[in-house]
Amino acid sequence: MKDWHVKHMRDVIVKYLSGLPEGASRFERRMYRKYGGIMNVNRTIEYDLKHGVTKNDIISFLVTLKTKASFSQLRMANGFDDRMYQLETSLRSIEFQPTAASFSNDYVY
């Protein structure tokens, strides 16, 4: 199951960094405004972190995006640098450690 979440995290990051296509339809623009923002990316990455993705997985994938030749088309996308900067700064605010136990888990019956 962890492999699925790692792949999902990678897909979400690539989709966010690629941005909106040039000839996007009205529906695509509306869906991008609704679901394509950095807050939704953070939410899905937090979800994947809860299900086995590690901080090292995320950092290694971001380094791969910046260095590998297979992602050169993605790096040439309009606004890539700005979106990468936003992603890196927003990932700093995400807690990578397991969250504290909730009240329902602490309560002894």
Tally the structural domains.
1
Count up the helices.
7
- Number of E-type strands: 0
Helix content class: 55-70%
Task: Tell me the β content.
Answer: under 5%
Low-confidence stretches: 99-104
- Main sheet characteristics: none
> What is the mean pLDDT?
85
Rg from Cα: 16 Å
Helix/strand-derived category reads mainly alpha
Between the first and last Cα atoms, what is the distance in angstroms?
32 Å
Q: Which word captures the global form?
A: globular
Oligomer: single chain
Helix-strand sequence = HHHHHHH
Mind explaining what this structure looks like?
The chain is mainly α and 109 residues long. It has one domain. The protein is 69% helix and 0% strand. The two termini are 32 Å apart.
Short summary of the structure?
The chain has 109 residues and is an all-alpha fold.
Give a topology summary.
Elements: H1 2-18, H2 26-35, H3 38-50, H4 55-67, H5 72-75, H6 80-93, H7 103-106
Helix pairs in contact: 1-3, 1-6
List key phrases describing it:
109 residues, mainly alpha
